Predict the 3D structure of the following.
Amino acid sequence: LPYDPVKSFAPVAWVARVPNVLAVHPSVPAKDVKELVAYAKANPGRLNFGSGGNGSAAHIATEYFKLVSQTFMVHVPYRGTAPAVNDAVSGQIQLVFTGAPAVLPHVRSGRVRALAVSSLQRLAQLPEVPTVAEQGLAGFEADQWYGLVAPAGTPAAQVARLNAEVNKALALPEVAQQLAVEGAIPLPGAPLAFGELIRREIPRWAEVVKKSGATAN
């Protein structure tokens, strides 16, 4: 990259996080994560998982799941999340582990089966679906997250004002409601907390990328 993801920016606000949902086609003989892991270990390479492309958030989240569960599944990269989810619905691939908004309608219609969510807490839109961590993979967390940054060197007073305005907006009921529709959880907080998240996440996911051998398009 032509910039440093830490030094080139001033963190402003951590806006929201979006848990990923682990969903399988109904033909997969697994009703929970333990059964999925057992099936994958008994049938290495038989399960195909889709994502929005090489190096996408869904790709890396699933590679992390593979590493933690010690399973082997075949990655099928698509040009976007929608075609990957569509093929999971039709049974062309067996599994997706992607942001909740893309799969929620299909879970509710029964066209895919939700086995778990990636956050440490259950998703309000799917309260009956347990987390991955609840199902034996302790500490597992692989949410997508979104925030605002400014150019490095932005005056602290400007950063503080932007942060305050974002937090004010996130507290509005209509904003929270719209975020909930999208499967997102608002996270108002200080710039320092967001900066710490960025610094913490980079080495964590770099290790997953290195161990999995994943590359970007």
